[in-house]
Amino acid sequence: MNxxxxxxxxxxxxxxxxxxxxxxxxxHFIEExxxxxxxxxxxxxxxxxxxxMVLFVVLAGYVARENESxxxxxxxxxxxxxTRLLPFLFFTxxxxxxxxxxxxxxxxxxxxxxQGYISGLKSTMFGMPSFCIPxxxxxxxxxxxxxxxxxxxxxxxxxxxIVIAAILFYTAGYYxxxxxxxxxxxxxxxxGYNYFFIHEAITLYSFYLIGLILKRTDAFNRLSKSMMAxxxxxxxxxxxxxxxxxxxxxxxxxxxxxxxxxxxxxxxLLFPLTAAAGCGAIALLARISPKNNxxxxxxxxxxxLMCLNGIFYHYINPGLAKWVIDTYSDSALTVxxxxxxxxxxxxxxxxxxxxxxxxxxxxxxxxxGKQKMSGMKTLxxx
Length: 382
Description:
mainly alpha; globular
């Protein structure tokens, strides 16, 4: 399968997205150990969440098309509806079906019940997707792209302007969220305060611009493989030595960790340092990784995977994590092995659905121009 074909996809970006999705599946399972007061789970959770969602933002900035700032408003909004909002609506409807048959974790919603569905739909309409929490990131991406569409036309003629804008957006967004605490379920600030997570898009637009700068400067193609390997190791060590130093202030005091969903970042300098290092480690690792068609294919379908993760997040992870601790222990070995196995099995179970969605309803999963796939043979040749 040629991944750098007429679609102009960038192979190592798709591999990096695959690694990022592994972290999402792993992190959401580890979250359950953290909620069960596992020290190992808490440490791993804090490590992963210190950078993994920011990674998606940097990668999105790297592949952003600079000429979109020249589009008309109607064309831009139509494109984002088809490629972002329509998949969000599709998976929202799809994820409203399982509660009829299965019990899941829905944070106060009593499902299935009329009141539960009404409350969940109300929350989803105002930006918090109650039936599939992981799909919130699609809304954030829309928010980031709205900011980019409005702002980038004033920046595109100068890389220096982009650098300055990244600093200003980060600083403004950081203090906006810290001082106003715009979105906080603990204070009842959920409904009506977070359309497309614009409050957090302001902060994260700085990282989106970092990705764009990396693409402009062709940074990943200027280094040898040995230099990239060394850089990945250095970035990983930076994360390992700094993630636990970030002790706040955090908006979301239940976790007191970096949680992008709640615009909870912690220290103004340690957060971007650790996040940037983590992004660098994964991006450089992806750049030197051998091309694997299955990984690339899954990386090309991160939107679908993010939403499918809702099945595991709501229905499987909570009970499975509790069973692991009750049956075995919460030792580092048990937690890590169980999380790795669960992640790999979960991703494997998603593959048939990726194929089916791409083949039969590409328009509903953000790929309106995609031709129907002829079969799984494109996945097996490396």
